[in-house]
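Hi support team,

I'm opening this ticket because the web form for multi-chain structure prediction keeps timing out on my end. I have pasted the exact lines I submitted so you can reproduce it. The total is 758 residues across two entries, so I didn't expect it to be a heavy job. Is there a limit I'm missing, or should I split the entries? Thanks in advance, R.K.
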Amino acid sequence: MSLAEERPQTRQAPVNGADILVDALIHQGVEVVFAYPGGASMPIHQSLTMRADQLRTILPRHEQGGSFAAEGYARSTGRVGVCVATSGPGATNLVTGLADAKLDSCPVIAITGQVPTAVIGTDAFQETPIVEVCRAITKHHYLVTDIADLPRVVKEAFHVATTGRPGPVLIDVPKNVQNATLDEMPDFDPPMYLPGYRPEIRHAAPEQIKQVLAAIRRSKKPVLYVGGGAIHSDAAEELKIFAERTGIPVTMTLMGLGAFPGTHEQSLHMLGMHGTEFANYAVAEADLLLAFGVRFDDRVTGKLEEFAKHGKIVHVEIDPSEIHKNKEAHIPINADLKETLRALNAAMTDDDIPDIAAWRKQCADWKKNHPLRYKDAGDFILPQYAIEELWRQTQKDDVYITVGVGQHQMWSAQYYKFDRPRRWLSSSGLGSMGFGLPAAMGVQAAHPGHTVIDIDGDGSFQMNIQELATLHCEDLPVKILLLNNQHLGMVMQWEDRFHAGNRAHTYLGPVHHPEATGKGESVRVEDAYPDFVKIAEGYGIKGRHVRSKQEFPAALAEMLAADGPYLLDVLCPYQEHVLPMIPTGHTVRDMITE
Amino acid sequence: MRHVLSALVMNQPGVLAHISGMLASRAFNIDSLAVGETENPEFSRITFVVAGDDRVLDQARKQLEKIVTVVKVLDVSQEEYVERDLMLIKVSTKGGTRSDVKELTDIFRGSIVGVGPEHIMIEISGQEKKLEAFIDAMRPYGIIELVRTGRIALTRGAESAVGD
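Hello R.K., no limit was hit. The queue was backed up. Here is the completed structure from your submission:
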């Protein structure tokens, strides 16, 4: 018997649980999964090979990379991102990605292999009770014990992940369920059974729309405070119509960047701890705060009692538990934002347009007089400059930007102006270092023809540096702009501000180096550690170092023009702080600008 | 302020763990929690006594409702309702106190469900205050051990307040 006969490439009855699972994913329109195999998920991978023509499988080099890639796919498309791992350590490696997706309301489905049902609870090899572990960090979770439940569970998982406030769903599938068989393919569209889940699109009541319009009409200093909800509900278009018609200035959260064009004259850009001075001044003075798709996160509000204390608050939010959670709303509206904006736009008459010319001038003056700024550093490449230059070179192209977590993330939020939604991918709520590179993989898989750039820091980059192999092996031409300052910059900044500059494990070179104890003058080029370009080379990826501002624009252009993946290692001074900064629990009056 | 919440939940493994984990991780103050199957075996009813102001209660209710396996949550204490605790208590009858204990049990409308040479076991139900008073009444005789259910509660009226 030939090998081909031994391993049939088409499925014949009976079909097993793994086949059903994979076909159920295809039925849901999944086109790519990020899957790392292991003992308890092997049947799923066998089935994936048989459907390779319909469903691409990308092998990350760490399950965490797979989970962030699934997020990258989901955040940039709005569709479900899928990752697969084996039981035990494979499953626990997904935990950070699931927690990340939960906090940023990201539709991700994680499928984990599990030990056979007969040995669940016996501390079997590679057994973890992953459903128990993930209860609090998923929107919903399943342990499938019967092959007959698989089509319904997959259908429900997609429904729960994508409706209402999106979020991650875990499906744990024991190996014996994967290997169990049915005589024929089941119905992939069975009835769902979710009596406790009612995410029907919620509309604002007509009286609420009237109330909001009345509040706008009476306001003298209104501000729009827009968050990730605007992106999840695809409300960018309606938001732009609403903002332009009313003339109300718009500030966005880290999650909301791109919901309203960053280059628009009404944009006040980001607010909060590292938001612009003008956004924070505007919110502090506002007499009406239109809080649309936001959750009054502590990084936005600082001291809660002082936040927008002069303003009446209209809170439009899909998740009822966010309303009144941190801040009491005067007009609470539990509804879909896109639908609410449509209703507002439809009901608005010329009489509702507020007379806010003086306020708009005030905001424009703040914007002019207190811009984001950084000092000239000669031929050194400041991270702020590098990002601004990247924006200059790519603003006409429709590029996607991912980031890690820390200073480079905040500078990217400040200096790259996003004009469209879903182009900016940042681990915002959880703040997971190592997010940038694998997320970029997911974006690139979803948007093969687009330029995808991971702006990363050297700390974050090393947390998932193994994914360079995935870029090379899976033909994902992600560009990496590495802002390498040899430090954990954000923690270092807090050391400088709040701990008298005492370096506590924030230097990333050898411990005997003077910088490790804060006794160095600056990092010398020859001390830079590790050699990222050599590492990239080892993975088969092109790259170069750049250390001179004069050489930077050309080096950047070279990166952007590269066909395949590319790493540009930019050595930056570490002395820079992200400014402005409102220290934790403080107010706009305590803003540090120097 | 104490409120009695009644939650109708899917009768599945892990639901109670999910709910109690959520309440604990969000630092809600739960005085008691009782769970049991309902008239429909697909659903269980969980009764909570939550301490906190209206804002705490509002959050607790919304966070409970967000759990996919939680079908409906009702603040029973906002309605006309009946609440009960059940207690089993073993009391020493050394020194010939059995008739005294029995008399007190009758007064409190408890019933004796077990008798030993030097102790008896009493079953008693009622509102929390009544049970507290009975415990105080038994203390002088020597309480050997006791166990109490959490609060259970139902609204008055012919219709089902939680289930549809």
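A quick check on our side: The beta strands of chain B are 2-10, 29-37, 43-51, 70-75, 81-92, 111-115, 119-126, 143-148, 152-155. Let us know if the file doesn't open in your viewer.
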